[in-house]
Amino acid sequence: MNILIKQAHIIDSNSAYNGKVMDVLIENGTIRSIKTRISPEKNVKIIEAENLHLSNGWLDMQVSFCDPGFEHKEDLDSGIKAAASGGFTGVALVSSTYPTIHSKAEVFYIKNKTADSIVDVYPIGTLSHKQEGQDISEMYDMKLAGAVAFSDDKKPVNNSGLLLRALLYSQNFDGLIMTHCDDKSISNDGKMNEGVVSTKLGLKGIPALAEELMVDRNIFLAEYTNAPLHISNISTHKSVELVRQAKAKGLKITASVNAYSIALDEKELSGFDSNYKLNPPLRTKEDIEAIKKGIIDGTIDVITCDHRPQDIESKDVEFDFAGNGMIGLESAFGLINTNKGKIKLETVINTLSANPRKILKLKEPKIAEGEIANLTLFNPSKEWLFEKKHIQSKSSNTPFIGTTFTGKVIGIINKKQSYFNK
């Protein structure tokens, strides 16, 4: 189907049309014309909306679809629907499946099963064999099969020698190592951020130090090996500063934060709602402000959803025993845009689109005539109520049902397919 997008504000820093309001005609999946006005022809689907914005398709670097092994929480089909509804034309899947994504067989499974989907799905292979933290995984084979990076997901690499060898080895085939930073000997099965609030609630705290020590160590190893390293899930002001200093030294460090880390602080846990039990935990308002400044000045490259489906049996239990995580794909843009503060909209879009692809060394789409259409359409000023009917995921572990957001996704176009929210 051919599509005519009318009067869209274009956001694409690599496009000559950036910042302009244009009509965009898409024929057979390719952008055929971009003009101030295009007259519609027969057999063309017209997309018009108030304050319509158009950007390159968004890509989330950290998503769990639970497939294979935990399909009762999410599977590839339901996860793709959630991603499309949230405005994402691409997702990178974490390796915490069963079995883990630790060989080319699992990579092929994901690639083959999602080959025809509207959302591009990129597997992340394990860093260590089966995420056991002992031996390097079959990274080279997985890279050839289609893995875009290597990480043990939320399992921190405690063995410094293992991470050192992985950073050295990955350079032989242009591989990217991603790490989650948490010194387990310090966090010690804590339930929330350590501080005044945890003391009042009587919950075991997770010191910011547990994250910051690991961030510092991992940066040292990246400097020693001169290897690129992506640090995921940073959540404290000191972690932001450590990354800022590393970048100032010219190290090949990139970093991402989770959407909830710019929007929610530790006080949300006062009601013991297990949907706020997260890893990393919600931190302080000071940490939130530091993260926002880090996004503005480029210290933080990417904002991720950290979409983590959990079934009701994992969340509807005592807080101490509840699983970590919340779903986030469908509500991510609304959450980020509502709480972005002084962060410019174009900066937000770069953290969701251009920057993830640069880090993962994926081809970047471009809004230009003759380019393949890989697009996200949205209205950044529209207020809307997030309801359970908006959830495409199999799971509904989110605290945001009943929340009013500013900024709504209209739809996506990718791979000669389109999806539009009702």
Task: Describe, in plain words, how this protein is organized in 3D.
There is one protein chain. The protein has 422 residues and is α/β, with parallel strands linked by helices. It folds into two domains: 2-54 and 368-420, Urease, subunit C, domain 1 (Roll), CATH 2.30.40.10; 58-360, Metal-dependent hydrolases (TIM Barrel). Helices cover 27% and strands 24% of the residues. The protein is built from 13 helices and 18 strands. The protein has helices spanning 76-85, 104-113, 139-145, 160-170, 184-187, 196-201, 208-225, 237-248, 285-296, 312-315, 332-338, 345-352, 354-360; strands spanning 2-11, 21-27, 30-35, 44-47, 53-56, 58-63, 88-93, 120-125, 149-150, 177-180, 192-193, 205-206, 229-232, 253-258, 302-304, 374-386, 403-414, 417-420. Strands 1, 2, 3, 4, 5, 16, 17 and 18 form an eight-stranded mixed β-sheet that branches. A four-stranded parallel β-sheet has the order 6-7-8-9, with helices on both faces. Helix 8 (237-248) links the parallel strand 13 (229-232) and strand 14 (253-258). Helix 2 packs parallel to helix 3 (139-145), helix 4 (160-170) crosses helix 7 (208-225) and helix 8 (237-248) runs parallel beside helix 9. The model has no long low-confidence stretch (mean pLDDT 97).
